[in-house]
Amino acid sequence: MTQPGIRDTLQRNALFLSLTDEAVDRLAERARHHSLDSGRILFHQGDPAGYFFLLKTGLIKLARISPDGQEKVISLVHPGEVFAEAIMFMDAKRYPVTAQALEPTELLAIPNEAYRAMLIASPQACMALLANLSMRLKSQLEDIDQLSLQQSRPRVVRYLLAQPAAETVAGEVVELPAPKHVIASRLSVTPETFSRILHELASSGLILVHHRQVILCNPVALRALC
Fold this sequence. Notes:
Elements: H1 3-11, H2 21-30, E1 32-36, E2 41-43, E3 51-57, E4 60-65, E5 71-77, E6 82-83, E7 98-101, E8 105-111, H3 112-121, H4 123-149, H5 152-162, E9 172-175, H6 180-186, H7 191-203, E10 207-210, E11 213-216, H8 219-224
Antiparallel strand pairs: 1-8, 2-7, 3-6, 3-8, 4-5, 4-7, 9-11, 10-11
Helix pairs in contact: 1-2, 3-4, 6-7
């Protein structure tokens, strides 16, 4: 990607809208474009964290690995989203998760120190970053509520209805953004439980499942299960 292309990509994201043209130019000079094949690791949990990232295309899985090797999916990053930006303010600047591409992916790596310098010169950029982190915190608190207070079935239904194509019109097709075992980990259920719930919803006539496509046959009845 050329520097003008990097600059245009940065300017379309809320974190960079408040920066001056000169500041964006300087940041674009330091940013680096990366292309990842499906399955490629961007960084491992515990690696030194010198960059945060803006996803241009593809899908990134952020996961924690337990000492016994078990994986817990923390988040799925979609195009236009920024990730790993909060680490630049931590004392121990190491990535707390592993980031892996789940499909062919393009992203920008932005040096933490370069962006921190921009923040010092721009109160507006500081406010944009605080707004982004606040929205992320709110989303994580909602996740905690769902994972700790809701049973598995309402959790799965809420996830289906939260997908971009999920409308109230019967027949809407939702494309699951990741393999089912990844979504199961994200929802803190086993793959077997996730598949069983999808089968039960299909048997009740509420959905139809074909590979990673889910047809919402009765969205109104689904919402009543949340």
